[in-house]
Structures are given as structure tokens and as C-alpha cells.
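Quick one:
INPUT:
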């Protein structure tokens, strides 16, 4: 993660073996409210994915070693990472069969370079918005659970108070009867205290 990363912002992973391409993508996406993390290979991307959580991966198709398709297929086989959306970007693999292979491997989009900055930013913004809505839902569910706990505590407290009241009614009634009988002043005082507690 870069030194300027903020833990309160979502992470987006950029994967490309050409540093100039990474730089171009970073310049395009930097204005968005995200942390940008980059990798120069599929292997490095997989390593980063085990250490950080990401809301999106923007990945080049053609890379030496493990290409984008192979990386995404491997990613989809891992239960903890299989739902991370991937946008493929390419300048070379533009044939229909390759595009289909990209979608079949698990990509949510497939873009051709040079990519218009506004189009890429708009597509990434969709995933940022989805992430923000998901976080709001998590927060609302947490608040709802807390409210339900408080309501349950209130019901429990009312039930306990009712049960205590049921227990004290016979004692109070008995103490009232006893106060009418022939008892000493000390006993009268004790019974009065019991009666007032009920």
C-alpha cells in the first residue's frame, strides 16, 4: 500500500507489467476516493490479494508469466477472493474470441487501450458506489441489531419487574392483614416496612 493510503477508503488493485501503463491508470483514477495499489505481474497481484482486501481489480490481459486470464481463473478458484470484480484492459487482445475468453474467466468488463479516462473513471465509480452502499447496509444492520438488543433488554426488564411484582403481592397482602391483628409496635413497624417495599 502506498504511504498516502487511508484505511477508511476502499482499495483498487491495478495490474500491468508496463510501469507507464500503471502510471496512466493511476493518474486517471487518482481523483476518485480510493486507495490505488499496483502490481506488475499476476503473481504479485495474487500475493497482494492475500494481504489486502480490494473492491476492484483493473488488470492487463497480456503479461509475461501468468497472464490476466490465468490470474483471474486462479482468483475465482479461491473462496475468499472469487467475488472481487475484475475489469480487463488490453491493447493487443482485441479479437472477439479473446474478449469472450476474458468474460468466461470471470471479468465484469473488457476495455481496449487507449481507454478514455472518463469511461474508466465512470466504470470504477460504479464499484465505489456499490462498496459504499454495502458499507451503509452493514452499518444499518449493526444499528438494527443493537436496537433489537436494547428492545429485548427492555422486554426482559419489564418481565422481571412483573414477576417481582407477582412475588411481592402476596407478601404485601399478608403484611397488610397482619398489621390489623394484635401485634407489638415493633412488629407493626416491621410489617409497615414490608408493606411499603411491595
Amino acid at each position: 500500500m502506498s504511504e498516502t493510503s487511508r484505511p477508511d477508503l476502499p482499495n483498487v488493485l491495478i495490474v500491468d507489467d508496463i510501469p507507464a501503463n500503471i502510471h496512466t491508470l493511476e493518474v486517471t483514477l487518482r481523483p476518485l476516493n480510493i486507495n490505488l495499489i499496483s502490481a506488475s505481474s499476476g503473481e504479485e497481484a495474487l500475493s497482494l490479494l492475500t494481504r489486502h482486501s480490494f473492491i476492484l481489480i483493473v488488470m492487463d490481459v497480456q503479461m509475461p508469466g501468468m497472464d490476466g486470464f490465468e490470474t483471474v481463473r486462479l482468483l475465482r478458484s479461491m473462496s475468499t477472493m472469487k467475488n472481487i470484480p475484475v475489469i480487463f484492459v488490453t491493447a493487443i487482445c482485441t479479437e472477439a474470441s479473446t474478449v469472450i475468453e476474458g468474460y468466461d474467466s470471470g471479468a465484469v468488463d473488457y476495455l481496449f487501450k487507449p481507454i478514455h479516462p472518463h469511461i474508466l473513471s465512470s466504470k470504477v465509480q460504479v464499484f465505489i458506489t456499490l462498496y459504499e452502499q454495502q458499507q451503509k447496509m452493514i452499518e444499518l444492520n449493526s444499528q438494527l441489531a443493537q436496537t433489537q438488543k436494547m428492545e429485548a433488554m427492555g422486554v426482559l426488564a419489564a418481565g422481571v419487574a412483573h414477576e417481582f411484582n407477582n412475588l411481592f403481592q402476596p407478601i404485601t397482602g399478608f403484611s397488610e392483614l397482619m398489621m390489623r391483628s394484635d401485634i407489638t409496635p415493633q412488629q407493626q413497624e416491621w410489617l409497615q416496612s414490608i408493606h411499603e417495599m411491595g
